[in-house]
Amino acid sequence: MLPFICGCLLGLISGLFLLCAPTSPVNFLDQTQHKALAVAVFGLVFSKLSVLVLAPDPLPFSKDTPQEIKEYMKIIAIFYWPTLYYPLLACGTLHTKLGYVLGSLFSWTHFAVLVWQKIDCPKTPELYKYYSLLASLPQIGCLGFLCIKYPLLFLKGAKANGSEDLDSSYYTDYVKLILKKKKSNISTSIRSDKPKLLETITDTVKSYIYTPEKVFRFPLKLAISAFVSSIAVYQVALLLVILVIPTLHIVRAGIDDKFPFLLEGFGIVLSEDRTEVVQIVIHYTWCLEVCYLFILFLHVSTFRGNLQGLYRGDIYNVYNCRKSIRPSQTGLVCWMGFIGYQAAVISLGMVLQTLVFFICFVWLVFLIIIPVLYGQNLILFQVAAKAWPVWLTLILAITLQHVTARFVFIKKDAGTRDLNNRGSLFLLTYLLFLINTVVGLIAAIWRMVITALYNIIHLGRMDISLLNRAAETYDPAYCYYAHYLKVEVSQSHPVMKAFCGLALQAASAGGAGQKMQDAEEGIQLVNQEKRQDKVINSRRVQARWQLLYTLVNNPSLLGSRKHYQLQPSDSFVNGTNRSAAAGSKKDASSKHTAAEAGSATPTAAATDAAATAAT
């Protein structure tokens, strides 16, 4: 009852204060707000939802909830807990010391009540005696962070109240970076197009690891999504460990001298010594537990690449058709539900991954590893050995086709390739028709296995579609991700923000802004005797025209222009521009820079202009 009373009092105080607040208390997802506060509160609410799913009493003021109304109570709790924690989020949007004081009061009160509850009653009856305590650790961590963050904001005072959006140097630094002249690397240009094996492995590993870049800032909702996803991984891992690991302990404790007779019933004889068999099974059961814990980790790390691609107008990297980067009804719905979708998808994907890989590892251990190490009862290998004539025939047929295709049926003449010995090619195709049918059956089975494993592995990722490029619109998770990116890019493009910041600076400058406007229109009002002022104004004009020219030629805006919309559809194949796909791989870096800069004028002058604009 104490949490309910405290929540009512805090809600009443915060409601009265927020109604009288000079600034909007609902603007907490804007880029000008404190991002860490929003991340912590969203993580707190999601952690509470995770505990709420298995809680016997969803609401704090309802004890011994009857089974008939428990589902209704859970629906009410879904709205009750976000409302209770909303003041923690709203106090940070006020940018006043009074707001920080109230935020400190609310966070310390919630933190004290939660810690007091866990100390007073650490054990709970559901699933595992310490499950409620372990599941509440993210809540305690988020509230503890808020208890420290709000007092720090109060001590900073005016330094923490300034706007960080258009006044931030991030956008001007971003424009400078894309207009900066890139150093040509001769060794890279003359290097072979085919990468080495070590480079391929290194690039593959790096693609799954997020490495910070010099000038790039994640949007607020992506930061919230990443933090909530990490909490989802923890909660699902905790639930799976509590459900499976004790069961494995019970199985391992029940293994005795009678267990070898059970294995002998399946034709498995690991050793003549029964005690040694028991130790073998216990050892590999422990290995299952360790490997089970290792497969709980998941990597999601391609948000930045897609964002930067849309920044420079690479629409076909995310969509399979022409899209205008602007808000829409569907886009706003997906933008609102993106964080919840990401948490739910990664949770379900983790459960399925754990189940599938656990079963696969059991088969691997008991059908391959144990028989191979002890050299007895190679059941799987015995079945394969009985069909060795079939496997040998298939291998020889495939090898024959590859060898003849390379040395007999293809001829090289003056640097070109053409077919040779067509009659022999047709005859061999006819003779190997039935064998290729059997090979096709094996390939179909392998295709099904690979497709299933690939989709299960990537089920937790919303940034890639699990369907074909032409059918990706039927993948709801990917559609949410793609529409979310469309709204995010249209509202937070760094070049657009830099242009708006310069425009606001010119408007706030008063007379100086009017002079710059006259200079842009070609009216020379500067006195010829003021040589220094003339140089400064000319550089300002150059900087503003450079930025305007960049915006006009920005590829991310081409989709909304008439000449772009009237392009023939046959210039695009599989969602890829033919002219863009025709370039070689070694030109990718130069095209990347040119596209992002928006076909700007010479980079040396543009760099000087951007530097002048930043000042």
TrEMBL record:
Record's superkingdom? Answer: Eukaryota
Entries under InterPro entries matching the protein? STRA6-like
Keywords attached to this Swiss-Prot or TrEMBL record, sorted alphabetically, are:
Cell membrane, Membrane, Receptor, Retinol-binding, Signal, Transmembrane, Transmembrane helix, Transport, Vitamin A
What name does UniProt use for this protein?
A: Receptor for retinol uptake STRA6
Is this entry keyworded Signal? yes
The residue ranges flagged as biased composition, category Basic and acidic residues, are 584-594
Q: Name one GO biological process term.
A: vitamin A import into cell
